[in-house]
Amino acid sequence: MRERRARRERLRAREFDAFVAGAGGRLLHAATLLTAEPPGAAPEAERLLVLALARTRADWARLRGEDPYHHARRELAARYALSLRRHRRSRGGLLGALPPRERLVLVLRLFEGVGEEQTAAALGLPVERVRLLLERGTATLLSRPPAGDAPARPRARRARRARAGRPGAVPGTEGAV
């Protein structure tokens, strides 16, 4: 009896390891979008992911037919929703300008492709509120110019040209930026 239980537990552990190997990157990316941290250094996103995966592993035997990715994503969203106060300050980036709840709805709806009803049920909100948060977040994102498209200041551009010895540089501005 013990041997059979140990064998089942080893099988579950291998299944969970395979799941994490396949879905961990996408879940980490979703967590990084939620926390609005830069992709290279995202300790808060990693913490959220570890908590969500720990809960998923604890529930692994009870999933039976349920999509483990859906379960892990739901846990990730729930953990993030519990810590909304911690994520109020802007950390930069395009999504960092959004309030946490709008960021959560945008990531679930647009990045993860979760339906309105499922998002509303996961967050405990009415469908109309989810729709409003999505519209407001999308409008905010569309109203902001992308960070890389900002034109360089003419003076700085001329100074760079002067340093490179190109035409169009203004003399005496070699060190000015």
TrEMBL record:
Residues 144-153, 165-177 have a biased composition (Low complexity). Residues 94-137 form the RNA polymerase sigma-70 region domain. One of its GO terms (molecular function) is DNA-binding transcription factor activity. One of its GO terms (biological process) is DNA-templated transcription initiation. It comes from the Bacteria. Residues 154-164 have a biased composition (Basic residues). Residues 142-177 are annotated as: Disordered. Pfam families: Sigma70_r4. This is RNA polymerase sigma-70 region 4 domain-containing protein.
